[in-house]
Amino acid sequence: MILRIIFSIFLFINFNSVLLAALPTNDTFIKLPKINFVQNVEAAKEKFQLKDYQGVINLLSINIKSKDIPNSYLVESLINRANTYFFIKDYKNAKADYLNCLNIDLCQRADVNLNLGKLEVKLGNNEIAASYFKNAILLSKDNIRVLSEALSFFKNP
Question: Which of 90, 87, 88, 117 is nearest to 102 (CA)?
Fold first, then answer.
């Protein structure tokens, strides 16, 4: 009986030490794979060409959720994901991404306002669309494309 207890204790100690030794060190938990923002954006563009729209959204969502993403890649990821949502007629998520982009200094505000105007036209909200198109015109500066697209709304509302 005593031998059995000693043997059980021996197995318990050895088993626990093996389990502890097999656990990863704290360094392993800290080292998460680095996100390659550029690679994700480029891969998303390829997936869009292949009509893998959910793949585009998934890749760009990885970028957008990252806390250490530079603003330039955050803006590009938000706009590309919004454009993808717009393309698949998910206007609610497209609008959310466009609006989030407007809160970032590097955002191309004229383009985003133009896209928000187009989105509101699709939803039948012409008054709201007009305000976005006006903003696009005011922000367009030397961007003839944005200026002409926004003005075309007022020619043919």
Answer: 117
pTM of the model: 0.76
The alpha helices in the chain, defined as continuous H runs, are 2-22, 26-30, 37-49, 53-65, 71-87, 91-102, 109-122, 126-139, 144-155
CATH code for the domain of 62: 1.25.40.10
pLDDT in tens, 46-68: 999 999 999 999 999 999 999 99
Cβ-based burial of 102 (10 A; exposed 0-12, middle 13-18, buried ≥19): middle
> Which domain does 113 fall in, by range?
37-155
The number of angstroms, rounded, from the C-alpha of 84 to the middle of its chain's C-alpha atoms is 11
